[in-house]
Structure formats: C-alpha cells, structure tokens
Amino acid sequence: MSKPADVAAAPVVPVSGLRRIMQKIWWLHSFFALGFGVVVMAFARKGLAHADKVLIALVASWMLIFVAFRFIVGPANRKPDERFVKKGMRLVTNYVIKQMYQQMFFFLVPLYASSAMWSIDSWNWWIVPLLLLCAVLSTMDLVFDNFIMEHRNLAAGMYGLCMFSVLNLLLPLSFHFAHFVSLMIAAVITPTAVALLSYPLKSVFSSRGISLVMLSTVILAAGCFMGRQFVPPAPMAMPAGGIGHGTPGSYECVPGPLVQTSPDKLDQLRCVSEITEPGGINDDIVHVWMHRGKELARVTPSLMKQCRGHVLRSKLGTAAMPADPTGRWQCRIETEEGQLIGLRSFRVAGDDGAALGTSDTLSGAGTAFDAGTAGATTATRAIDGGRAE
Known about the structure:
The protein is α+β, with helices and mostly antiparallel strands. It is 51% helix and 14% strand. It folds into two domains: 13-230, no CATH class; 237-387, Immunoglobulin-like, CATH 2.60.40.
C-alpha cells in the first residue's frame, strides 16, 4: 500500500520556476518603461506646443483613473473568491494606470526642473526629486502593483502630487491663468479630488470625512499661499540672465558674467533676464535688488525691444545705492506675487580686496552658485549677437 504523500508531492517546483520567470519579465518591462520615461523627459518641453491636445488626454486619463480607483483596483474591491476575469481586468487596469503615471510624471519632471532655481539660496527645487522618485516608482511594476496600489494612503498621496503638479502647470499653460492663481486653484481642488477618487464615498461624506477634507484644503492652501516662493512657476523659466555695469555695449542683450567688482565700478548697474514660457507670459515680472540679504529696491523691468525673445532689464539708480556697497549682491527675478523665477548674484570687494562687509550674514552662501552663474552666462554672451536685431 503506497503512502498518500508519495502521490501528491511533485508540482511545486514548476510553479515556483514560473513565478521567477514572470518576475524577471516584469523587471525587464520596468527597465524598458524607465528608458521610455527618459525619452519622454527629453522631449517634454517640445511637446508643450500641443498643450490643448495634452489637456484633452489628461481629462480622459483622470476620468479613467477615477473609474479604476472607484470600481476595479485597490484592496477594497478585492474578494476572496475573485474570478479569473476580474483578476485579468485588475491586471490590465493596473497596467494602464502605470502607463499614465509614467508618462505624466516623466512629462512633469523636466518642466519643473527647468523652472526651478537650483541654488542653496532657493528651495523651490524640492518638488523635482519628489516627482522623479514617483516617476521611477511607477515604472517598477512589482513595487507599484504589490505595494503602492495595495496601500490606499500611498496611492492617494501619489495621485494627489500628480494632480497638484499637473494643475499648477496646465492652468497657466492652456488657460492663461497667472501662476499664483493656478497654484491656489490646484491647492483647493487637490484634497477634494483625492478624497473622492481614493476613499469610499460614505466615509468622505461623513462628518469626519468632510472635516478632514476641509482641514486638508485649508492647510494646503495656506501652505501654498505662505510658501509660494518654494513652488516654481512652471513652465516659466529663465534660460539666460546677467548683471551688467558701466556703459552697455552697442548690441548688448544679456551682459557677460559678473562675479566680483569694486565699489568704483557700480555705475549703470543693471540686471537683465530672459524669460520664456511656452503658453505665453501671463505674470508681471519684478527684479528685486538685494544687498547683504536686505532688499534695496523692487523694480519693474522694461522690455528690451532690440532683443529677440522676452528680455527684461532693470537699473538700480544711485538713490538706492547703499553707503557701503561692499558685500554680496543679488538680483532676484520673481513674479509680482513672489514666486522665484531666477537669481543672479555677485560681490563687491573693498580696497583691501575683502568682498564682505562687517554686517554681511550671508558669507559663503552663494559661492558655488556664483561660479556656476559665471559659466552659464559665458555661453549666453556667445549667442547675444544672434538675439539682437
């Protein structure tokens, strides 16, 4: 009489082997998706010329994700006796959602990166690595399917970041809202949208749910209002800028690099910025002149009509010049509401060669950035002749 254990033991190895093969296939697909995302990043800015088409695709994407979150994916919609068809639908839906996330996040990263100010004097670049992290995670199939989509709060946070970033970008791009208005609209809409898309309607419309949504909206809106300088006005960017002094050149648009100068060479001190925005510039721009961390003047720059593009220049008159000009200077290029677009800095050295006055509290804060500014503006000088008419 044979033992029952001898009859049943064999089919475990093939199942385990098939599982390993499927995992390898998913990882290969993940690396392919990551490579495709890099391509999307490379051509993202060129794609802004078709903003209206992108907007239509986005609306359709959000509607599909609404249906998927509400009725198909997530642990709340899973039953112990789930049939093969429902599992297949869940797999397909997850795949579609991942593709939308990938394209959207990889589309957003370069636009926010070009708009952010990469300097220790500004922290409006924080959103870029966060978007990039979400973009990479969305390509990791096993992580996205088995961890993020199975944890409601993680999925809701990821969706909320994506929606906030898209609204903040597309409202000025397609509907020509000012950037600060777009920022506040995104802050008000996002909490309600995330709640409706990610949580049961019964819990959202309960007294506790409504209170949490309202509290989240107030916190996010207040944070965006008070911290608007930490959110880049994407897709607005400043590809070139510089500080000039002395008599301007005959065909000067953006002046050459100025890293350090002396107090006797500050005549006709000027700040020049070239601003680009694919959907057209909808904001008023100001130049904020700073000395040793203190604001000297807030000047509305004038358009340099002899230059191609949107090139703005402001001059700091003698009335605003401090008695002791030595130390660190900055020209901050901002929207009228205070969102940072760009920054140019330089130093004024005294007769003994010291660049900082006794009351300068920002010593060394922008040294690394100043060196990068010098290199970037050198390239600008080479093309200024082409900009001049």
